[in-house]
Protein 1
Amino acid sequence: MGIVKQAVIFAGAPVQPELQPPVPQADLYLCADAGVRLAQALGIVPDRIMGDFDSLGDVPAGENVEAFSPEKDDTDILLAAKYALSAGCSRLIFYGALGGRLDHMVANLQMLRFLADRNAQGILVDHAHWITMQRGGTASYPRREGMYFSLFAMTERCEDVTLEGVAYPLCHGMFSNAFPLGVSNEILAETAKVTVGKGDLLVMYAKD
């Protein structure tokens, strides 16, 4: 297995910088539009700043800035995600992508499938959430104190799902995107083991 290149992308949702989880080491730090404010507040110097800058209000100065027209199909955060993919990153961690406008948040959840289609993993984080998507296979997730562990079908069905190490285990079950079967589970062991035979499963840690 080769080395996984990691990018951290800052978006412009209204979050409190002092509450955000520590920013990990990364090969690339990107800002999408007003995400530059969050990066600055967290002491991160971005490698690139991109977007239409309608949220920020003006175009920052600098050779690492790329401005786009507001009349575009891609959201600013998706522009940054595409740039990270083009740079060879396959693990993308997003700050400031939750807690703002609901339509933007839904778009960011959909983006996790876009990334999976390109053999990359997206992770959305803030002070109360850690969210990713699992496309088939088996994965382990550590217990996080004070956080619920919820699972939702992103495809019409997630088949042959097995959950181990949790309060409500499941053996070769099925999740549907029409019924929230997996909400508010809890990890009891050091790690939970999640196996998905077929389908895209949204994996979410959430605090009260």
Note: Helices lie at 35-41, 76-86, 102-116.
Protein 2
Amino acid sequence: MRIDPDSRALGGFSTFLTFVALNLLYIVLCLPVVTIGAATSALFEVTIRYSDDESGRPLKDYFPAFRANFGRSTVLMLCLLAPALLLGFSSVFWFSHPALFAGVAGVVAVIGAVYLFTAFLYAMAQVAYFRNSVGQTLKNSLLLPAAEPVRTLGVLIIPVTAVALTILFPPVAILVATIGFSVGAYATAFLFRSVFTRHEA
């Protein structure tokens, strides 16, 4: 028996293992917390490239992208993800109070947190795709969710679904830890490319 290294089955298995390794690498590099921005932008960079006719080498290109994007992605993370988390925590505080105004404040906090989280995803994808300044990227990231509501919904569905399924069915966490982030980034890469193509000057 002879195994053909160019067979579709072997190629598909190799791609699967690549995405598993990429997922685990992403999780490990997110553990220091301060590196979440750089790890996310690097993940978007290699998956956006791969979504374009499977160009690039996701694993080999990941660390160079991580190093190149570290500065801009970290600043943008502090500008967008940090306040999103603060709003998320504040919503828990407001919802714990029975007063009507507290409930309204909680809803506003949740909406703000979701919007800023979406802007953070757009920012990390822009760092991966463009070489704009931090200021321009921040401005674009805050405008794009409102300018592209349908595609933004698509970008949000993947992480929201993953979190919801993990809460409802805890064993799903194993799937998320194995391929959830890398495959999710690959799926959203097509949406990001579509958005950026529409707005690219």
Note: The chain has seven helices and no strands.
Protein 3
Amino acid sequence: MTVPQHILDLMHSPGVYFCGDPEMDQAQREQLDLLYDINRTRPGDPHRTELFREFFAEIGDDLYIEPPLHANWGRSTHWGSGCYANFNLTLVDDGEIFIGDHTLIGPNVTLVTTGHPIRPDLRERYAQFSEPIHIGRNVWIGANVTVLPGVTIGDNTVVGACSLVTKDLPANVVAIGQPARVLRVIDDHDRDYYWRDQRIPAGI
């Protein structure tokens, strides 16, 4: 099933909206049935790519996701080419998520586009809001990272393990922490060393 456009428009628009519409519930159940099928495919099964095309908004070439995958919808997530995601990726994708080419995502990463108002009576009525996440090209997101609504991460940036990304990160930096902060710029040192004092072999 294709999620009805008016439901996507509601989730992707700015501001507070309310869940619980029966048509929305039915559309989400059908998406979760697809997700169940994805997580039951065997490694190397070409049918998995077909399911990805049906489940996500768009996928580039050579997308590989290690099951299990968790997602609210799927239809709000856009993948570039050559992307890889390790085990237990969670996409809270009521709002849109854009992931650039050749981005690598470590295990147990959570990308959260959606939150709920602080005001208690609105939460009782299942109110929520969604803000898009934009992840650039050739980004590496380490294990156990959480990215919150509305965040943009620039091209080539590395986000260290266990970070909580609450604000935008520029391109070409290493960032880490809770909340994540820029640790340093990616520079010439990184051309010669892949990890601490470990030198990249000649000719690579």
Note: Residues 145 and 162 are 5 Å apart (CA to CA).
